[in-house]
Amino acid sequence: MGAFPGVRAEQQAVLEMWFPGATLVADHSWGLVERSVLQLRHDGRDVIVKAGGPDDHHMEREIRAHHEFVAPLAELALAPHLLHAHADLRLLATTFLPGRLIEGTPAEHDPETYRQAGRALSLLHRQSSRSGEDYEARADARASAWLRRDHRIAADVVDRLRAELARPAAPRPLVPTHGDWQPRNWLVDDGRLAVIDFGRADWRPAATDLGRLATQQFRGRPDLERAFLDGYGTDPREPSAWHRDRVREAIGTAVWAHLVGDEDFEQQGHRMIADVLGSARSGGDS
Predict the structure, then answer these.
(1) Where are the transmembrane segments (predicted)?
(2) Dist. CA 103–CA 90, nearest whole Å
């Protein structure tokens, strides 16, 4: 087994114990963050290995998610099965799911895709619930912390965003969430959807998993939104709380994308900010 790209020596040593003689099939790494995503072949089957850098806290989340709430989806072939994990080394191995990413394919515009995605998300959310007594304050604190980092949000806009975060927020129950529920993390194989990449998974209000879709795929496509909610079974977005979620999501998107140099995603974040502040000015929360 040769050294794999982006894998530290101590991670390589563990991989040699997990998958002796494995060979590299494909490198699926994004290149924007300190993480390698590799498809390996071992004993005639393909596996996915994720190797994070020392500061890659998303790997901690993904490992925790697989231990806590991914397994029921994996049993239905809606997510990969956990094979091995080493939290201290930010190292994870799962089964390989066949199929192609939905983003950029005709399936991204097919209502049936969203009906299946809604159904899968409902299964994830319905597993458990816990009190969210301190969630809103913590989420506001994180959003405020983003605004203290380097970004290209205008000063007057920052003031308006801070004012939005200063408003009182009622507590909501928390459920297992994916954190990046959108077509770039969905696979389709013979018309059947599956979900990957639980690196942003955490306990959050259910509505937060609709944030990316509302900003992207649902814009101008109410049929996709209807199909998704039909699969999900209800609409988890309470208007005032949903507005707050959109404010936080917009801030995080614009700042994070700027920090990692993803200009297209950064522009999406600025559009999200404009949309949510425009909604606040008009008195609407949708």
Answers:
(1) none
(2) 27
CATH fold for the domain made of 9-97: Phosphorylase Kinase; domain 1 (3.30.200)
pLDDT tens per residue, range 240-278: 999 999 999 999 999 999 999 999 999 999 999 999 999
Angle at which helices 222-232 and 111-125 cross, to 10°: 40
Q: Which of 157, 199, 167, 170 is nearest to 65 (CA)?
A: 199
pLDDT tens, 122-178?
Answer: 999 999 999 999 999 999 999 999 999 999 999 999 999 999 999 999 999 999 999
54 phi and psi angles, rounded to 5 deg: -60, -30
Topology, domain 101-282: Aminoglycoside 3'-phosphotransferase; Chain: A, domain 2 (3.90.1200)
**Distance in Å from the first CA to the final CA of the chain:** 53
Quick check: 80 and 48 in contact, CB under 8 A? yes
Long-range contacts of 216-225 (CB under 8 A, 24+ apart): 216/182, 216/268, 217/108, 217/114, 217/182, 217/183, 221/109, 223/111, 224/109, 224/111, 224/114, 225/114
Phi-psi region of 110 (alpha: psi -120 to 50; beta: other; left: phi over 0): beta
Q: Which pair of structure tokens corresponds to residue 24?
A: 């590299």
Q: How many CB atoms lie within 10 A of CB 118?
A: 23
